[in-house]
Write a structure and sequence with these properties.
CATH architecture: Orthogonal Bundle
Largest sheet: none
Pfam families: TFIID_20kDa (PF03847)
Family: Belongs to the TAF12 family.
Distance between the termini: 26 Å
GO cellular component, one term: SAGA complex
Strand content: under 5%
Number of domains: 1
Number of strands: 0
Keywords: Nucleus, Transcription, Transcription regulation
Protein name: TBP-associated factor 12
Radius of gyration: 16 Å
Order of helices and strands: HHH
Length: 67
Amino acid sequence: RLLSKRKVQELVGEIDPNERLEGAVEDMLLEIADEFIESVTQAACRLAKHRKGDRLEVRDVQLHLER
């Protein structure tokens, strides 16, 4: 996993210090985050390949996210 439960708790605490998430909700948020990161990375890699690049660059990720 790229995010930890602790980081999710910190992010929620920044929004509302009194809010607590159930374990199942934390797990779901972590899964969604992992899927999002994987999806963005795959799409950005396709863009890099399309431009005949040999490495993934920030602009590839930005281009995908701007769509």
